[in-house]
Design goal:
The chain is an alpha/beta fold and 151 residues long. Helices cover 36% and strands 19% of the residues. The longest helix is centred in the last third of the chain and has 16 residues. Pathway: Metabolic intermediate biosynthesis; chorismate biosynthesis; chorismate from D-erythrose 4-phosphate and phosphoenolpyruvate: step 3/7. Pfam families: DHquinase_II.
C-alpha cells in the first residue's frame, strides 16, 4: 500500500479560527478526515503531521525516506523563505505536491515567491480545502504511472 505524508506548516493548527475570510472555516482535523476517507478509496495510507517549527518539519521530511511514497505539503509562511525545507524535500527524492488554501499569487507581494515550488511535482493554490484532495489525486496518478500503486 502506498503511503502519503501530509505536512502542515506554521499556524495551520489554527484553521477554522484564523482569518476564515482567507482560509475558510474547515479545521485541520476536517481536512485530514476528508483526506483519510479519500485515501481509503484509492487504497492509500495517509499520515498527517503539523508543526510550527521549521526544524521539526525538516526532521519529519528526513524520516520519510524509505517509509513514505509521496508528500503533500503546505509549508505555510515557510514557503516564502525556507531554503532548508526546500533542500530537505530535494534531498529525500520523494515526489511531493505543494498546497495552499489561498492564492498566494494574489496576496501580498512577499507571498508570490515559493522556494518549494521548484522541487515538487506541482503546486495547487487558491482552491481551498479541495486543493488537498486534488493533490492526493495527483499523487495517486503519479504512483500508478510509476507502478507504485496498482488498481
Amino acid at each position: 500500500m502506498a503511503k502519503v505524508l501530509v505536512i502542515q506548516g506554521p499556524n495551520l493548527n489554527l484553521l477554522g479560527m484564523r482569518e476564515p475570510e482567507i482560509y475558510g472555516s474547515a479545521t485541520l482535523d476536517d481536512i485530514h478526515q476528508e483526506l483519510a476517507e479519500q485515501a481509503k478509496k484509492f487504497g492509500v495510507e495517509i499520515e498527517c503531521f503539523q508543526s510550527n517549527h521549521e526544524g521539526a518539519i525538516i526532521d519529519r521530511i528526513h524520516q520519510a525516506m524509505g517509509e513514505i511514497d509521496g508528500i503533500i505539503i503546505n509549508p505555510g509562511a515557510y514557503t516564502h523563505y525556507s531554503i532548508a525545507i526546500r533542500d530537505a524535500l530535494s534531498s529525500v527524492c520523494i515526489p511531493a505536491i505543494e498546497v495552499h488554501l489561498s492564492n498566494i499569487h494574489a496576496r501580498e507581494e512577499f507571498r508570490h515567491r515559493s522556494f518549494i515550488a521548484p522541487v515538487v511535482l506541482g503546486q495547487i493554490v487558491g482552491l481551498g480545502v479541495i486543493g488537498y484532495q486534488l493533490a492526493l489525486q495527483a499523487l495517486v496518478a503519479h504512483f500508478r504511472e510509476k507502478n507504485i500503486l496498482h488498481t
